[in-house]
C-alpha cells in the first residue's frame, strides 16, 4: 500500500477542525505514521534536484553537497554531522534567498541544537569569503563571536563547505550517504509531533 492509497482509505469526517473527534485523529495519526516512514526517501529525492545545477560554480550543487559530506566523513565527524553536511544546501531549490533556513528547518527535528544552529547560520559564516565581492559586509558572522556554536560553524565552513567546489576533489556517491540519512532521519528527537510518530 503506497502513501496515496493509505490516505484514500482512512479519512476523517470533519470539514472544520473544531468538529474533529478522537476517531478522526486516530485515522489521521495512522496515515501520518505511514507517510512519515517515507520522509528520508523524499529528502533524498529532493536533494537529487541539485544534480546538474551549477549556478555558475565549477561543480553542480549536488556535487558540492556530496563533497562537503565526504570531507566531514573523512575527517571523522559523526553520522549526524555528516548528514548535516550533506543536506546543508538542500534549500537552494526552494529557498533561493534563505537556503540555510530551509535546510535547518528540515534537519531541526532530527539533529542536535548545535548542528541545527551550524546549518542555519552557515551562509552568514561562509559569506566571509565572498560578501565583499558583492558589496556586502563580509564580517556579518562577527555578531555571533560570543555564541557557543561560533567555532563549530567556523570549522564547518572553513574545512568542509568552502573547499567543496573542486572538480578534482574526492566526492563519495550519494548511495554511500543514503543509509546515514535513513538512520538520522528515522525518528525525530525534537518535534511538536514527536509522539505521533511513535
Characterize the structure shown.
This protein has nine helices and no strands. It is mostly helical and 198 residues long. Helix 6 packs antiparallel against helix 7 (113-126). It is globular, with a radius of gyration of 19 Å.
Count of helices? 9
- Helix fraction by DSSP (H/I, runs of at least 4): 40-55%
Strand content: under 5%
Helix-strand pattern: HHHHHHHHH
Gyration radius from CA atoms, angstroms? 19 Å
**SS class:** mainly alpha
Report the end-to-end length measured between terminal Cα atoms.
Answer: 20 Å
Q: What does the oligomeric state look like here?
A: single chain
Average pLDDT taken over every residue: 93
> Regions with pLDDT < 50 over 5+ consecutive residues?
3-7
Major beta sheet summary: none
Number of strands: 0
Backbone shape:
globular
Keywords:
mainly alpha; 9 helices; 51% helix; disordered N terminus
What is shown here, in short?
The chain has 198 residues and is mostly helical. It contains nine helices and no strands.
List the helices and strands and how they pair.
Elements lengths: L2 H7 L12 H15 L2 H9 L13 H14 L4 H9 L11 H9 L5 H14 L23 H12 L12 H11 L14
Helix pairs in contact: 4-5, 4-8, 5-9, 6-7, 7-8
InterPro entries: HD_domain (IPR006674), OP_Dioxygenase (IPR052567)
Protein name: Phosphohydrolase
Amino acid at each position: 500500500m503506497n502513501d496515496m492509497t493509505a490516505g484514500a482509505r482512512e479519512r476523517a469526517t470533519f470539514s472544520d477542525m473544531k468538529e474533529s473527534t478522537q476517531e478522526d485523529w486516530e485515522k489521521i495519526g495512522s496515515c501520518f505514521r505511514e507517510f512519515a516512514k517515507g520522509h528520508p526517501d523524499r529528502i533524498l529525492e529532493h536533494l537529487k534536484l541539485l544534480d546538474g545545477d551549477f549556478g555558475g560554480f565549477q561543480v553542480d550543487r549536488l556535487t558540492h553537497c556530496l563533497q562537503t559530506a565526504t570531507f566531514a566523513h573523512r575527517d571523522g565527524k559523526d553520522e549526524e554531522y555528516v548528514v548535516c553536511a550533506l543536506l546543508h544546501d538542500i534549500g537552494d531549490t526552494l529557498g533561493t534567498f534563505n537556503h540555510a533556513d530551509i535546510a535547518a528547518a528540515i534537519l531541526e527535528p532530527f539533529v542536535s541544537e548545535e548542528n541545527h544552529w551550524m546549518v542555519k547560520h552557515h551562509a552568514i559564516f561562509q559569506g566571509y569569503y565572498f560578501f565583499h565581492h558583492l558589496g556586502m559586509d563580509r564580517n556579518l558572522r562577527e555578531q555571533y563571536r560570543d555564541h557557543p556554536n561560533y567555532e563549530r560553524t567556523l570549522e564547518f565552513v572553513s574545512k568542509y563547505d568552502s573547499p567543496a567546489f573542486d572538480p578534482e576533489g574526492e566526492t563519495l556517491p550519494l548511495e554511500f550517504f543514503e543509509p546515514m540519512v535513513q538512520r538520522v532521519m528515522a525518528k525525530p528527537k525534537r518535534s511538536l509531533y514527536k509522539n505521533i510518530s511513535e
